[in-house]
């Protein structure tokens, strides 16, 4: 019995160290803006995390919204989950992976997109990249932003609600976040 408990203790310790190493790697990778890390991590997020988040993102009462955008290279419609916060006549989204993220580049190139948030779809335009300090964020989110070293946000101007029928079908796996 003592031997089994010792084995379990070692196993739990190794698991905790592995989880700690992964968390450290993610924080360091995001803070350093290492392109190789960001590319690999966003591919994992796009292929594994986003499909699950997209099942409820944008629905009334959900934490995450969905930005619907058109690929500047592919011309395909994509959906990417984002954390949009209301800000005056629009929204603000913290740029976790910076302004180089594909969804950001797609929006900037197209000049508009659709934000699905709280059960409604809004055409968004008039994009502006701003310092994260000027974005209205809840305190718990502000702490995470500081921890990950996020420095910019994207302001989205609300250009009005969109009729469901006018929104093209999207690749629900999403594009790079």
From TrEMBL:
It comes from the Bacteria. NCBIfam families: hi_GC_TIGR00026 (TIGR00026). GO terms for molecular function: oxidoreductase activity. This is Deazaflavin-dependent oxidoreductase (Nitroreductase family). It comes from Microbacterium thalassium. InterPro entries: F420H2_quin_Rdtase, Split_barrel_FMN-bd. It holds the Pfam family F420H2_quin_red.
């Amino acid at each position: 019995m003592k031997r089994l408990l010792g084995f379990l203790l070692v196993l739990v310790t190794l698991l905790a160290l592995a989880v700690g190493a992964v968390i450290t790697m993610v924080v360091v990778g995001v803070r350093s803006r290492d392109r190789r890390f960001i590319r690999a991590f966003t591919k994992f997020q796009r292929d594994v995390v986003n499909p699950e988040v997209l099942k409820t993102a944008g629905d009334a009462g959900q934490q995450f919204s969905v930005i619907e955008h058109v690929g500047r290279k592919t011309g395909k419609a994509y959906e990417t989950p984002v954390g949009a916060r209301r800000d005056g006549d629009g929204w603000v989204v913290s740029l976790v992976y910076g302004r180089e993220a594909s969804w950001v580049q797609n929006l900037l190139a197209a000049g508009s997109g659709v934000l699905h948030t709280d059960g409604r779809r809004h055409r968004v335009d008039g994009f502006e990249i701003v310092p994260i300090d000027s974005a209205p964020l809840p305190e718990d989110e502000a702490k995470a932003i500081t921890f990950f070293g996020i420095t910019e946000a994207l302001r989205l101007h609300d250009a009005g609600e969109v009729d469901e029928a006018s929104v093209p079908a999207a690749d629900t796996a999403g594009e790079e976040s």
